[in-house]
Design goal:
mainly alpha
Length: 233
């Protein structure tokens, strides 16, 4: 395998790892990124509305100019007819030229008004679609945020439960250690008592009594025997 191939594979692996890290970061910041994207979309939509308003104004002005041209043309046509009736061909021809010029201007304005009108209708539909999509996205983000809050609460509850269980286990362990220390202390005290009895001779007396060599005056049998003797006297 060539050195170049090895380096290519290494760089590919590094890029893949970086991509995974990047995706993890994006996932962690998903809601924040979505909020920013919605703000960007809102800003773009505001710009589109401004552009739509400007085009609507141009459409309105173009439509108004068409109406004004129509009114002027109608007035000039009446004057041209009057000139013809007065046998003023020269004036009628001059007015006819004005009518032709205004008609061309009116037709151009009419075409422009039509283009503006079509663009306004298209932009209105596009703006409405964008508003609907942003509204839907905002609702989805709100639901995602609600789910995120619920899941965080569930995780916190799970952690708290695990912590409580851990604390209970710790408490049980502490009690067991305490009991073990108490048992050890009791055994030590008993051993010390036995040593003390041995040093005073009490231990020997106790062992003689336990062996039955020396009668135990405080035992039930000894008491019963003493009472029998009293009864026989």
């Amino acid at each position: 395998m060539s050195g170049t191939s090895i380096w290519n594979k290494l760089f590919t692996a590094i890029r893949g790892g970086a991509s995974e890290v990047g995706e993890a970061i994006v996932d962690q910041q998903a809601l924040r990124i979505l909020d920013q994207e919605i703000r960007d979309a809102d800003a773009a939509l505001a710009g589109a509305r401004q552009e739509l308003a400007a085009i609507m104004a141009k459409h309105s002005l173009a439509t108004r100019r068409v109406a004004e041209h129509d009114a002027k043309i109608k007035d000039l046509e009446a004057k041209a007819l009057a000139a013809l009736k007065a046998s003023r061909e020269d004036l009628a021809t001059e007015v006819a030229q004005l009518i032709a010029n205004l008609t061309n201007e009116r037709d151009a304005e009419h075409r422009q008004a039509g283009e503006f009108g079509a663009y306004v209708e298209k932009m209105r539909k596009d703006v409405a679609k964008a508003e609907a999509r942003i509204r839907s996205l905002r609702q989805q983000v709100d639901m995602a945020r609600a789910r995120e809050s619920v899941q965080k609460a569930q995780v916190s509850a799970s952690i708290a439960s695990g912590g409580a269980n851990g604390k209970l286990e710790t408490a049980v362990g502490t009690l067991n250690r305490l009991k073990a220390r108490q048992d050890q202390r009791a055994a030590e005290l008993e051993a010390q008592e036995q040593l003390a009895e041995a040093s005073t001779g009490n231990d020997l007396e106790r062992r003689l009594k336990e062996a039955g060599i020396v009668p135990d005056a405080g035992s039930a049998n000894a008491v019963l025997e003493r009472l029998r003797k009293q009864a026989a006297e």
